[in-house]
Design a protein that fits this description.
The structure is a homodimer of 352-residue chains. Chain A is an alpha/beta fold. Chain A is 43% helix and 14% strand. A 6-stranded parallel beta sheet of chain A has the order 2-1-3-4-5-11, sandwiched between helices. In chain A, strands 7-6-8-9-10-12 form a 6-stranded mixed beta sheet, with helices on both faces. In chain A, strand 9 (275-279), helix 12 and strand 10 (294-296) form a beta-alpha-beta unit. In chain A, 50% of the residues are buried. Chains A and B meet through helix 4, helix 5, strand 2, helix 6 and helix 7 of A and helix 4, helix 5, strand 2, helix 6 and helix 7 of B. Chain A binds a DNA duplex (16 and 16 nucleotides) through helix 2 and helix 4.
Chain lengths: 352, 352
DNA sequence: GTGAAAGCGCTAACAG
DNA sequence: CTGTTAGCGCTTTCAC
């Protein structure tokens, strides 16, 4: 029960009358050491309850077997799913993850990155905050030669990898679907244009409208953020000006939920009075009434690719060329924006 | 851009013709060093882009300023909220968190704990998997003198702290509420009795039934797990035996969602044909129709307390006595189990 | 196959 | 106030 009473290599070595080098090698299964010695060492190590000291190991080997991760939020469907995939992939590659949370605060983000550098992570995976504009800290990361991969919310840093979903194409597909259903008066609650996902999703909207020769009504393109309030306010603005569209595409699912709230408040009904769809899936999309159709982001693939790409760069540092990967999305039709009724029940349970 | 070209204390020392001890102290703001030297050192450190090496620091100081965390899941409302609180609290105390995810797999849990021990975390916070029965690894943690705090899903380990919510009292309150509304035929979908939350919630159910002289019908106490399928199967079992209760208390919200699915499938309606409530809140509770009343767990407080307690033990190692904290819950009434209609609209947005 | 020597970058203890 | 000495526990040459 004593504090700081750890068994060391030397303890094992003395017990067996060998040197600690032998023990070190045996424990790592180095071919230098004979089978018998190796077995013996491992037996004693177990017996003594030896726990290696990674700090010492990493200090002398100059690698940490660790990837640092910075995300803006955890308690959010998208991020928690991506994070889970990151953890899984790292685990299967025998790497540790050190996760930090910026809480959408860019100063905190920078602090976390400093810490991660100080911990000598072998690579870094970042999804930036909504407010990140300064690139200094990221340039520092690259200057120290640390592989850097941006996920979903990206920055243009020379030498960094980026992994995004096809925001533009996914949105395009969704809008085209709405148009095929007969909608022509189409609104877009668009987040912020300074953030890449806001910009790209808007472009997809624009693409689809142009291709179908539909006018873009500037009253129906509303910026204001990615949260519920943005959706609520966005709808109310259109409602109060007595100029409502037939269909709304929301930049995120919380924005769509804000619209649901506003629509109910004014006594209208989705999807009959006004129809809606959004970018991004969540549990709520599935269970809300009417169930909310959306552009589904492959979170698992995003997280996995981020780790694999970073690992790849760590292991092939000299020959590696920075990559930008864009992952396709899928249209997930439920009760909204889906007149044909070909959707699964929202209560359909997986595997039953 | 070179790999592994880090500035060290010595580099700064040589530049200023002082010893590296002076630099080390100056950088940490040690009172030994004069204001001018300190300032000068900090200036040069910044200029050179110095990043301290925590591995070296921790190796020699024998502390890591780090708390290890093991949770069964991330992409789950309850855990992601607790984790976020853990991160926040650690951040404000200048501690780092190393989070690992067991994916409800006890072998993986043990592996992660070994890693965290090897990283020499100063303390450990754990919420065990559904299948954890073996206590060996936790005893090892205590043997190494590492402060250990269990959160929500606990194990009985001598010397460990536990932080739980009042599962028994919260359930009691919920069942009493249902009884006051006039229900007497009450069912409980109860998870697994081997897990503390399963056991405690069942006890709360039992308490309320006994106190109100209501019989407990063994056909209406159904075990089977904490997920959606458990809820689906539990309801179907009662339905198929032509013996339905008036009210169901679900051990978790996924179990309740499974019941929603089953109820819809057989063409019944909640809350008129059968009413329901559950332990645990989530976004879905709020947005589903009818909105699902529940026992609300104070996730923020759980996470915060876990970190504070662990930190307390780290800092007062010798005088510290292990603690068991139980945090009260709150009844959160929405559209189910709430005949008086005094609930807020499910679409009510915070702060609007 | 095995081990002795050197050092990773830093901090703690003590001496000046 | 500043510097010297000695490690922390491990891995990496390079001899034997």
């Amino acid at each position: 029960m004593e504090k700081n009473s750890h068994i060391t290599l030397d303890d094992i070595a003395k017990r067996l009358n060998v040197s600690k080098v032998t023990v070190s090698k045996a424990l790592r299964g180095h071919p230098d050491i004979s089978k018998e010695t190796t077995k013996l060492v491992q037996k004693i190590a177990l017996e003594l309850g030896y726990t290696p000291n990674y700090m010492a190991r990493n200090l002398s080997s100059k690698r940490s077997n660790t990837i640092g991760v910075v995300v803006p939020k955890i308690a959010h469907f998208f991020f928690s799913a991506v994070i889970e995939a990151i953890y899984d992939t790292a685990f299967h590659n025998n790497y540790e993850i050190i996760l930090t949370v910026s809480q959408e605060n860019s100063e905190r983000e920078a602090k976390h990155i400093e810490s991660l550098l100080a911990m000598r992570v072998d690579g870094l995976i970042v999804s930036i905050t909504q407010q990140t504009r300064d690139t200094a800290i990221f340039n520092k990361v690259k200057k120290q030669g640390i592989p850097l991969t941006f996920v979903d919310r990206i920055l243009n840093i020379p030498g960094a990898n980026t992994i995004t979903v096809d925001d533009r194409g996914g949105t395009f597909q969704a809008i085209e679907h709405a148009i095929k259903l007969g909608y022509t008066k189409i609104a877009h609650l668009a987040g912020f244009p300074e953030i890449n996902i806001g910009l790209r999703r808007y472009q997809g909207f624009e693409d689809a409208m142009k291709k179908n020769n539909l006018p873009i009504n500037s009253d129906w393109v509303i910026y204001g953020g990615f949260g519920e309030e943005a959706g609520y306010r966005g709808f109310m603005k259109m409602y109060n000006s007595n100029n409502l569209p037939e269909f709304i595409f929301a930049v995120t699912y919380p924005v769509a939920l804000g619209v649901y709230a506003a629509v109910q408040e004014v006594g209208m009904k989705i999807p009959n009075d006004i129809d809606i769809m959004c970018f991004g899936n969540s549990d709520v999309n599935r269970f809300i009434t009417p169930a909310l159709s959306c552009v589904d982001q492959p979170t698992e693939k995003l997280g996995r690719s981020a780790v694999e790409l970073t690992l790849n760069q760590i292991k092939n540092f000299d020959s590696f060329k920075p990559q930008s990967i864009e992952i396709p999305t899928e249209l997930l039709l439920r009760e909204t924006c889906s007149k044909n009724g070909k959707f699964k029940s929202k209560f359909a349970l997986d595997g039953i």
